[in-house]
Amino acid sequence: MSKTTYRSADVDGFKVFYREAGPKGAPKLLLLHGFPSAGHMFRDLIPLLADKFHIVAPDLPGFGQSDMPSREDFIYNFENIAHVIERFTEVIGFDRFAIYVFDYGAPTGFRLALSHPERITAIISQNGNAYEDGLSDGWTPIKAYWQDPSPANREALRAFLTPDATRWQYTHGVPDPTMVSPDGQNLDNFYLARPGSDDIQLDLFGDYKSNVALYPLFQSYFRTRKPPFLAVWGKNDPFFVPPGAEAFKRDNPNAVVQFFDTGHFALETHAAEIADSIRAFLK
Fold it and tell me: Count of domains in the chain?
């Protein structure tokens, strides 16, 4: 079994921490995590795929073990995050690769695809949205902040940053919550509790509207490029609902969509099933 190593890359002075596994000559697979997590969310998936793929899972800027500069030194928006990750792939020699995108990883990865479509060999989206059809009512307070970025609306979003909110994200929609390890959510809460992390996350909540504004461009990319596309979706996700997964087939009729009876963090309960789906998809 391939061992996972833990490394850091210097990306133009920005430290990006990443997990790496698999043979260097194997097809490349980039794993991009979401909020409020880090590359550790792939801890169960990586060993299931590392015999066939060269896997890299970076922590996004401001997340996990990657650098978290102050808001004065780095503007936390999705454009800048995607730029750092794009340069990261160049630094480590990922020239052509498939991407697995989840939550925040989706607008990051889709930006990479827009910037360099020739580098993307396939896309696996696990609850990674690109359609307004996929946004649930759970986005209402965040949308209110988009429309009116007042201090009161910003303050209201702090409710998403509490330990209870993290636990809810991990367990909502999971038929048997005892299947969800507390380890991932507790580590996420540790990172969220770092000084300055709260305002960084609130900045990203506000900037998520830039991703919605890019949805038409993402959809045009799916429609014109038609990359091999697999959507593996926790059907009980409280934020990204199943119509968002089905919508990929509108622009890419060859897209494969699979639903699992679980919530937002589908890998917590269905890593083996998702790994099987990826193996069959990328064979």
Answer: 1
